[in-house]
Every structure is written in C-alpha cells, then in structure tokens.
Sequence to fold (102 residues):
Amino acid sequence: MLMAQPEGSGGSAYGNIIFLVAIIAVFYFLIIRPQQKRQKERDHMITALKKGDKVITSGGVHGNIVGMDEKTVLVQIADNVKVKMDRTAITSIVKEAEPATK
Fold:
C-alpha cells in the first residue's frame, strides 16, 4: 500500500530548516553578540579601576576610589565618609585618575 503525500508538501522540510537557521542567525547577530561585547567592555572597565577614579555606582552614588581589594573597592562619597562595596557595583567611570607627574 502506498501512502499518498499531501499536495504542496514537497521540499517544505528544507524550507523549514532554512527558516530556522535564518531565525537563529538573526538572534545571534542582533541580541547575543552585542550583549557579549557589552559584557566584555564592562569586565575590562572593572579590572581597569584604580585609585583616584571618579565613579558612579549602580545605586547612583558618585564618589572617588580611595582603596582597592581583590573583589571590593573603598569609595569616598563625602569628607570622612567612605563606603566599601563590591567592584561589580561600579557602573561607570566619570573621570579617570590623572597620572602623577614628578
């Protein structure tokens, strides 16, 4: 007994596979790749922190880095007010520390 195939179904499997691959490619180039690039830039910024940098934290607090540890930074937010926080809480560097001149 031969099974009859519905009309118009010839080649649709290849069309579906090509469509699926195209959707995956669009997601990769429009969503995944730019997010990976932003994450790399953020990781680089966090590792490049140094004393004297003016920073903004994720809570919106502005301050200067006065001390550093492996995973934390000491941020001075006012005279005689220093806050110890995780490095990942730093969202941006406003002004980098100027190199000391001799």
About this structure: Residues 48-95 form a domain with the SH3 type barrels. fold (CATH 2.30.30). The longest strand covers residues 62-68.
